[in-house]
C-alpha cells in the first residue's frame, strides 16, 4: 500500500471515530484513554519530526545557498522567490477581502459572550504573545542573530527566521571560501542526509500519528462548533480552494508551463501530511523529498525555496488573516474605511511572510491587526474553536504554495538556459 493511501486511511478513520465518539466526550474513561494512549502517539510522531527541523533547515539552506552561490545564481533565485511569493500572497489576501465584502458573514452574527468567555484563557495567551511583538526597527536588527546557537534553541519561539538568516550568510560565505568540496561541505551534506533518515523513521508511524492528531481535534470539538460558524468556515475554505485551483493553477500554467492537475496529483502525499500536522515546518522534509524525487526540481533550488518558504511564504495564512479581521469587524458592527481595508491587505501580506510555520502561529499577528484597527481583541475567542480545522486547511495551501513557487523558480531558471 502506498504511503499517501495509508495517510488518507488514518485521516478518514480519525475523522469518523472522532465524530462517533464526540457525544461521549464527557466520559472520564474515554477522556483518559484519549489523553494517555491516543494523544501520545500523535505527539511522538510530531516530536520525531520537530527534533530534526532545526538541523534540516540549517543544512538545506546552507547547501542550497552554497550551490547557488558557486554558480552566481543566488541573487536571481532569491529575487524570483520574493517576486512569486508577493504575487501569490497579494492574490490570496485580495480573494479573502473580496469574499468578506461580498458575502458579509459577520452581519447580524450574534456574539455569544459565553462562547467568548470559554475561550478567554486562549485569548489571554494570544494577547500575551502579541504584546511581546517588537517594534519594526528592533525586529529588523534582530534578524541578525547575536548567538546562532541560542536562536536554534528558541527556533519555535519566534527565532527561526534569525536562524535562517544565519544559514543564508553562512552558506554564502562557505561558497566563496571553500573552492572544491571540503570537509565542512561534506559534513553539512551528511547532516542533511541524517535528518532525512530520521524523517523516514517517523514515516513508519505516520498513519497512526495522523489518526491520533485528527481524532483528538474532532473528538473534542465535533461538528457543533462548525455549525455555529458555518458561513465563516465555508468562506475561508472557499477562499483557500480558489487560491489552490485558481491562482496556483494560473501561475503553473503561465510561468512554469506545467499541468496543474498533474502537479497537484504528484503532491497529494504532501497535502495529506500538511493537513494532518497543521505545520509547514513539520511538512518540510516531505516537501523536499517530493520536490526532488517526484517533481524533478533542482535540489539546490528546491532546498533554498522550500526551506525559506516554510516560514516566509504563508499565503494561505494571509488569506485567513484578511477574512478573520474583516469578519470580526462586521460582528462588532465596525465599518472599516477603504483605507483601513487596504491596511488590512498590506498587513496581512506582511504577516503572511512573517508567520511561524507551526500550529496556531498566525493568531498573535491577527491580535495585532485587531488592536491596530480598534476591533475588540476578545472577539478572537469566537473563532478559536474552529481554528485548528482552519489551520489544517491553510497549512495545506501554504505548503502547496511553497511547492508551486519552487517549480516556478526552477522552470523559469531552466528557461533562461535554453
What would you note in describing this structure?
- The protein contains 20 helices and no strands.
- It is mainly α and 418 residues long.
- It starts with a helix and ends with a helix.
- The mean pLDDT is 80.
Rg from alpha-carbon coordinates: 21 Å
Low-confidence stretches: none
Helix/strand order: HHHHHHHHHHHHHHHHHHHH
Mean pLDDT: 80
**Percent range for β-strand residues:** under 5%
The backbone outline, from C-alpha atoms, is globular
> Distance between termini?
40 Å
Main beta sheet strand tally, sense and closure: none
- The percentage helix is over 70%
Q: In total, how many beta strands?
A: 0
Annotation field: number of helices: 20
Class by helix and strand content? Answer: mainly alpha
Structural features:
418 residues, mainly alpha
What does the secondary structure layout of this molecule look like, with pairings?
Blueprint: H1 3-21, H2 28-70, H3 74-103, H4 113-118, H5 120-131, H6 136-141, H7 148-153, H8 160-177, H9 183-204, H10 206-221, H11 224-228, H12 230-256, H13 260-266, H14 268-277, H15 280-293, H16 299-312, H17 315-331, H18 338-354, H19 363-373, H20 381-417
Helix pairs in contact: 1-10, 1-14, 2-8, 2-9, 2-10, 2-15, 2-16, 3-12, 3-16, 3-17, 3-18, 3-20, 5-19, 12-17, 12-20, 14-15, 14-20, 15-16, 15-20, 16-20, 17-18, 17-19, 17-20, 18-19
Q: Could you provide a short overview of the structure?
A:
The chain has helices at residues 3-21, 28-70, 74-103, 113-118, 120-131, 136-141, 148-153, 160-177, 183-204, 206-221, 224-228, 230-256, 260-266, 268-277, 280-293, 299-312, 315-331, 338-354, 363-373, 381-417. With 418 residues, the chain is mostly helical.
